[in-house]
């Protein structure tokens, strides 16, 4: 996980979504994680939601045990999640906002509004050796706040850019892309490592992968969906190819 190569983190949450649709053990997200690893994923991302709608506590235990690549553990800034993270000490902890009624993580974290609380919240995680990443919108005030609270990494929310693309609102898409570009450079100038993710697909990945400051992309839903059609390994290989092409 070093050097200048753009890393691909594969989010396996939605393998658990399919498993949980029937309440059993199949398909197993750990098997998907190992397959993703073999296909060249540089890391595995999993979001333990407060309502446990996809990934379970046992999945996190299992991932910590079986993975050879780093785990990026996504979680809300709650006391319960902090305890779980401190027990496992994953390579990275990504703090995300969470509302129970949402279908997915809809916006970035409001760091500026909760600066004091979040600074205290992430301190023990950093002391435990976790790289703390904050999932935020491409917004200068949020980036500055993330920097002030001592985060090492920010992950820029690419959802608005991807939605605008999917809905063919191309001017808006291009504006979103421009602010992602500017804010990647701004965050980098503060010394923050820049990651990006949410909603990325083969159609939307390349402009983001081309930003030289972006060091890691976290991609889940599209890849798990695409795995249905072409298989997990070819789905990941194609994403890797597009990322490399954009970066070249
Ligand atoms: N990054 C973060 C912080 C996320 O919360 C998610 C969704 O869980 C992703 C990346 C991946 O998004 P998607 O599943 O839409 O690719």
Automatic annotation (TrEMBL):
Q: Which reaction does it catalyse?
A: 3-amino-2-oxopropyl phosphate + 1-deoxy-D-xylulose 5-phosphate = pyridoxine 5'-phosphate + phosphate + 2 H2O + H(+)
* Sites where the protein binds 3-amino-2-oxopropyl phosphate: 11, 22, 199, 220-221
The subcellular location is:
Cytoplasm
Recorded GO MF terms: pyridoxine 5'-phosphate synthase activity
Q: Which of UniProt's keywords are assigned here?
A: Cytoplasm, Pyridoxine biosynthesis, Transferase
InterPro entries in alphabetical order: Aldolase_TIM, PyrdxlP_synth_PdxJ, Pyridoxine-5'_phos_synth
Q: Name one GO cellular component term.
A: cytosol
Name the Gene3D superfamilies for this protein: Aldolase class I
The answer on whether this UniProt entry bears the keyword Cytoplasm reads yes
Active site as annotated: 47, 74, 198
* Pfam families cross-referenced by the UniProt entry: PdxJ
Q: What stretch or stretches form a coiled coil here?
A: none
Q: Which GO terms describe its biological process?
A: pyridoxine biosynthetic process
> Pathway it belongs to?
Cofactor biosynthesis; pyridoxine 5'-phosphate biosynthesis; pyridoxine 5'-phosphate from D-erythrose 4-phosphate: step 5/5
Organism superkingdom: Bacteria
Q: Which residues bind 1-deoxy-D-xylulose 5-phosphate?
A: 13-14, 49, 54, 104
Give EC number(s), comma-separated: 2.6.99.2
Q: Where is this site: Transition state stabilizer?
A: 155
Q: What does this protein do?
A: Catalyzes the complicated ring closure reaction between the two acyclic compounds 1-deoxy-D-xylulose-5-phosphate (DXP) and 3-amino-2-oxopropyl phosphate (1-amino-acetone-3-phosphate or AAP) to form pyridoxine 5'-phosphate (PNP) and inorganic phosphate.
Which family does this protein fall into? Belongs to the PNP synthase family.
Instruction: Describe the subunit structure.
Output: Homooctamer; tetramer of dimers.
List the PANTHER family hit by this protein, alphabetically: PYRIDOXINE 5'-PHOSPHATE SYNTHASE
Any idea what this protein is called? Answer: Pyridoxine 5'-phosphate synthase
């Amino acid at each position: 996980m070093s050097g200048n190569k753009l890393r691909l983190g594969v989010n396996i949450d939605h393998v658990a979504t399919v498993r949980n649709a029937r309440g059993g053990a199949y398909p197993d997200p750990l098997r998907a994680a190992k397959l993703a690893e073999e296909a060249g994923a540089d890391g595995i991302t999993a979001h333990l939601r407060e309502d446990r709608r996809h990934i379970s506590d046992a999945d996190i235990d299992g991932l910590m045990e079986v993975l050879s690549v780093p785990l990026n553990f996504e979680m809300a800034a709650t006391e319960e999640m902090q305890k779980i993270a401190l027990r496992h000490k994953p390579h990275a902890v990504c703090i995300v906002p969470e509302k129970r009624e949402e279908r997915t993580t809809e916006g970035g974290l409001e760091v500026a509004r909760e600066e004091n609380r979040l600074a205290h919240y992430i301190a023990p995680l950093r002391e435990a050796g976790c790289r703390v990443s904050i999932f935020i919108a491409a917004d200068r005030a949020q980036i500055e706040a993330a920097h002030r609270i001592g985060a090492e990494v920010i992950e820029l929310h690419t959802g608005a850019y991807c939605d605008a693309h999917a809905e063919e609102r191309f001017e808006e898409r291009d504006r979103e892309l421009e602010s992602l570009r500017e804010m990647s450079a701004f965050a980098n100038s503060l010394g923050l490592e820049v990651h990006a993710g949410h909603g990325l697909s083969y159609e939307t990945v390349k402009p983001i992968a081309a930003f030289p400051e972006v060091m890691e992309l976290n991609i889940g839903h599209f890849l798990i969906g695409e795995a249905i059609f072409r298989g997990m390994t070819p789905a990941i290989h194609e994403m890797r190819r597009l990322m490399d092409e954009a970066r070249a």
